[in-house]
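Data card: per-record layout.
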Amino acid sequence: MKRLFLFFIIPMGIILIGLLFLRSRNTNSSTQQYKSPDIKNSPFHKEYLSKGGITVVNVWATWCKPCVEEIPVFQKIATENNHIKFVFLSLDEDQKKLEMFLTKHPINDITFKNKEYIETIKTFLGGNGVMGYSVIPQTFIIKDGKVVDKSIGGIDYQNFTDKLKSF
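The structure for this 167-residue chain is written out next.
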């Protein structure tokens, strides 16, 4: 029993205390290094959340085939519902590729205007902030500044149109 204590329990205790110390040190330093900016200061909040009404936010990327395929569907729904604001938020890391895509396919993408608020917006929408989203496209319906609906995956024209009418 004494050997078990000397060779197993004491080293495990030391390792556990060391891990707890490192974890608390990393938590404190990461908290100090990055503080998420307040969404109320973002162009997104000023243009789409603070004015009330309904806003649809589509989280997408140029490399996501279903995302690109549903853009014309959103454009059609947007022209039929001009009282609703439609915006796109890209998860692209390659800024040049996004810029080139947007020159060929003009959509109301808010990514560049809100560059320093991307993680804050993703967190507001219910994503897990810095970790991003596990599935895209994702579409959010915001009513009077609050997320009231979330769709994961591509949308269907008729189903989404009917959903918008319910708000």
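Known properties of this structure: The first strand starts at residue 54 and ends at 60. Residues 27-32 have pLDDT under 50 and may be disordered.

See the next section for split statistics.
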